[in-house]
Specification:
The protein is built from 15 helices and 15 strands. With about 425 residues, it is of the alpha+beta class. The strands form three sheets. Strands 1-2-3-9-4-8-7 form a seven-stranded mixed sheet, with helices on both faces. Strand 2 and strand 3 form a beta hairpin. The longest helix is centred in the first third of the chain and has 18 residues.
Length: about 425
C-alpha cells in the first residue's frame, strides 16, 4: 500500500491518494475547522454500459437498458436492515445516483464518521438479490420511469439526445424502459455487480473533518483484495448526421422550454481534460450571462435567467447544449446559430476569452470550499485518470489561440438538433 500527499502551493490545499492493497484507490481531503464530512464510493459503471467485455473475453455481454440504475437501487437492500435504516441510526444523510458513466453511493455526517464509513463499505461490498425482490423493484422503477415522462426538463433533454444519436445508448433514459427492466433478473444483477464492482474499477473519496489514518484502518479491516481485471466499454458506431433536426412534445408547462444541441464526432472515445475546458470557455464566451448574446436574448424577452449551457461529453459522445425557457424557441435557436457563425468567422476575442477563462478559474477555486463538490470531483478526476488539481493548473495556461482552433472543429449547425416542449 502506498500513501501519497498531493498538494498545490498556490491554492494552499492538499489531499492524500492511497493505493490500497485491495486494489481500491482512496482519496482523503482533510479540511480543518469543518464540522461535516462527505464520502463517495463510486464505480465506473453507468447507463451507457449496455454492452461490455471483461478482460480475456472475446464477445461483448449485452444487458438490458437501465440495469446500472436498477442495481444501484437494489444494493441498499439486505436480509436484515437496509442501508438507509442503518444510516438513520447514526444520524447520517445517505443517497446514491447513477449517471451515464458512473454509479456513486454517498453519505454526509457531522458525527459518527467511522461507523458511517463502515456502513458504506459494507453494504456496497455485500450485494443481496433474490428474484422476488427483483420483481418487486421492477414495479417501483416502472413507476419512476412513468413519472419522469411528465418531467419537462428531463423529457426535453432525452428528446434531444434521441434526435442527435441513432445508436449510442446515451439516447436511452438512465432508468431504462419498462420493457427493458422487465428483462432484469437476480442472476444478471450479480453478473453486472461482479464485473463492475471490482475494487480496481472503483474509487472512494472523502472530504471534510476526516483523519487519514482512521480511513486506512477501516479500509484495512473491511476490504479484501479483488482479483484484478479490466472491463472494456463497447464503442458504438455513430453517424455524423443527426437523426432529426427538430423534435417537439406537449406537456404541462407554463411556457415553452428548449434544448439546442450540436453533435460532435470523436477521433478518440473521450474528450481530453484540455478539450473539455476549452469547450466550456467557448460556451461561456459565446453565451455566458455576461455575453452579448445573453444580453440580446434577455432584452428581446426570448429567454430568462433559466438559460444555461453545457458541454455534454462522455465515453463515445460529445455535444454542446443550449437550454432554457423561451416564448419562441425556433427564433431563439436561429439567433444562437447566427452568433455562433459570427464567432466562427471572426474568432473569440482575447477579452472575451480572458473573461470566460477567469470565470471558470474562479469557479474552480471556490469549489475547494465545498466538501460535497470536492469528494465528487475527486471521483470524477480518478475516472478520467486525472488529478484533482489538473483542471486548476490547465486553466492557467490555456490560450485564446487554442480556443479558436478548437472552435473550428465544433458547433457545426449542420449537425444540430432542436428539442422543444410546448404547453399542452
Amino acid at each position: 500500500m502506498e500513501t501519497k500527499e498531493i498538494k498545490n502551493d498556490l491554492l494552499g490545499e492538499r489531499y492524500y491518494k492511497i493505493d490500497h492493497t485491495s486494489g481500491l484507490k482512496i482519496y482523503v481531503f482533510p479540511k480543518e475547522n469543518y464540522s461535516s464530512t462527505y464520502a463517495v464510493f463510486g464505480t465506473r459503471y453507468g447507463s451507457i454500459d449496455t454492452a461490455f467485455r471483461k478482460s480475456g473475453e472475446e464477445k461483448y455481454t449485452e444487458v438490458p437498458e437501465g440495469i446500472a440504475h436498477f442495481l444501484e437501487h437494489k444494493l441498499f437492500e439486505s436480509e436484515e436492515l437496509d442501508a438507509f435504516e442503518r444510516f438513520a441510526k447514526t444520524g447520517a444523510s445517505a443517497n446514491a445516483y447513477t449517471s451515464f458513466d458512473k454509479t456513486c453511493y454517498l453519505f454526509s455526517c457531522s458525527g459518527n464518521f467511522n461507523q458511517n464509513l463502515e456502513i458504506l463499505l459494507d453494504f456496497v461490498r455485500h450485494p443481496y438479490f433474490t428474484q422476488k425482490t427483483v420483481e418487486k423493484e421492477q414495479g417501483i422503477i416502472g413507476q419512476e420511469i412513468r413519472m419522469y415522462r411528465d418531467v419537462p426538463d428531463w423529457r426535453v433533454l432525452f428528446n434531444l439526445l434521441c434526435a442527435m444519436y441513432k445508436n449510442h445508448p446515451v439516447r436511452i433514459d438512465i432508468a431504462g424502459t419498462e420493457a427493458s427492466i422487465a428483462e432484469i433478473s437476480a442472476d444478471l444483477l450479480y453478473k453486472c455487480y461482479d464485473d463492475f464492482y471490482n475494487l480496481g474499477n472503483m474509487a472512494l473519496a472523502i472530504a471534510g473533518n476526516v483523519n487519514v489514518e482512521e480511513v486506512i484502518e477501516i479500509a484495512d479491516r473491511l476490504l479484501t483484495e479483488d482479483e484484478p481485471f479490466s472491463v472494456d466499454r463497447k464503442v458504438f458506431e455513430e453517424e455524423k448526421e443527426v437523426v432529426t433536426d427538430y423534435v417537439e412534445e406537449k406537456l404541462s408547462v407554463a411556457s415553452p422550454i428548449f434544448s439546442l444541441g450540436f453533435k460532435e464526432m470523436l477521433s478518440n472515445p473521450e474528450r481530453t481534460l484540455k478539450e473539455e475546458l476549452l469547450g466550456n470557455i467557448i460556451l461561456e464566451a459565446i453565451a455566458g450571462n455576461t455575453s452579448d448574446l445573453y444580453s440580446e436574448l434577455i432584452d428581446a424577452e426570448l429567454i430568462n435567467p433559466t438559460f444555461s449551457t453545457e458541454y455534454f461529453t462522455g465515453f463515445g459522445y460529445s455535444s454542446m447544449i443550449f437550454s432554457g425557457e423561451s416564448c419562441d424557441p425556433k427564433k431563439t435557436s436561429e439567433i444562437i446559430k447566427d452568433k455562433i457563425r459570427c464567432f466562427k468567422e471572426t474568432g473569440i476575442g482575447s477579452e472575451d476569452f480572458e473573461r470566460a477563462r477567469k470565470k471558470l478559474y474562479g469557479r474552480e477555486i471556490m469549489s475547494y470550499n465545498d466538501v460535497d463538490e470536492l469528494a465528487n470531483n475527486l471521483i470524477a478526476a480518478d475516472f478520467m485518470n486525472e488529478g484533482l488539481f489538473d483542471e486548476f493548473e490547465t486553466l492557467k495556461i490555456l490560450t485564446c489561440d487554442e480556443a479558436n482552433e478548437f472552435l473550428k472543429e465544433i458547433l457545426d449547425e449542420r449537425y444540430s438538433s432542436l428539442s422543444v416542449i410546448l404547453p399542452a
